[in-house]
Amino acid sequence: MIDDVPKTVLVLLAVALTLGRVWIAADRVSATALVLRRLWTPQTNRVVVAVFALIAFVVIAEDVVLEDVDEFILRTDHAVSASLSHGRRDARPIATTMSHLTGEGLALTVIVAVGVLLFKGYRADAVMITTNTLMAWMISGIAKVSFRVPRPRAGPVVDWRSSYGFPSGHVMVTLIALGMIAWAVGRRKPVGVRLSLYVIVGGLAIAAGTSRVVLGAHWPSDVFGGLTLGTAWLAIAIAGAESWHERHGRTNHRC
């Protein structure tokens, strides 16, 4: 339902961006469209993605914190929980495996990726991956304590370290860590390769979130929150990393 300011802004922004992009691509005559095409750089795309994702996060957070059960987000939470009540046990082995792969397995992946980049001399990329991964973990933890949204399986005794779940740190860290690795690996590759890597990263983040929902560790809204906040952070991180390489003139060289 579009019943408040954040949702209205999100919808209007989506409509404006869609119409604007169609017009800029279709208008090959006017000087205004030509100027806008020149201004619409990859960095512009990243800023737009970050703003849009951040507004989406605010929309989700508002509904979750206010606990309005009539809103779409919370209705989705309870509908998914009800649908999993019968098939949750059968899916638990796969969900547990995926949860470990994007938990302990993710930590090992980051360590290996950073080690390889350091060995090859790409120190700046290694630092960027490490920094953003640690920041994602810290921010997700701070957000959980700030929003104080209990997990589905939280007991009557609330432990701030394990009982709060919004946004999903599992999803957020997976998206940002693997997203930065994909950026480091793909920034010297063709556009199609880079897009494919980001699609794979997004799929893994969604799979991680789905596994956590199946295991009762998160509501779907926790996953949506992790995806939107993670997307905003990743877009900003990549924009900053690209700017760093452009300023230092080392886009295609070792750092």
Characterise this structure.
This protein has helices at residues 5-26, 31-39, 42-66, 72-101, 104-120, 123-147, 169-186, 191-214, 220-248. With 255 residues, the protein is an all-alpha fold. It has a domain at 87-248. Helix 4 crosses helix 8 (191-214). The model has no long low-confidence stretch (mean pLDDT 84).
For the termini, the CA-CA separation is 49 Å
Strand content: under 5%
Overall geometry comes to: globular
- The arrangement of helices and strands along the chain is HHHHHHHHH
Which class best fits the helix and strand makeup? mainly alpha
Short description:
By secondary structure, the protein is mainly α. The protein has helices at 5-26, 31-39, 42-66, 72-101, 104-120, 123-147, 169-186, 191-214, 220-248. Helix 4 packs across helix 8 (191-214).
Task: Outline the secondary-structure elements.
Elements: H1 5-26, H2 31-39, H3 42-66, H4 72-101, H5 104-120, H6 123-147, H7 169-186, H8 191-214, H9 220-248
Helix pairs in contact: 1-3, 3-9, 4-8, 5-6, 6-7, 6-9, 7-8, 7-9, 8-9
Structural key phrases:
single chain, 255 residues, mainly alpha, 9 helices
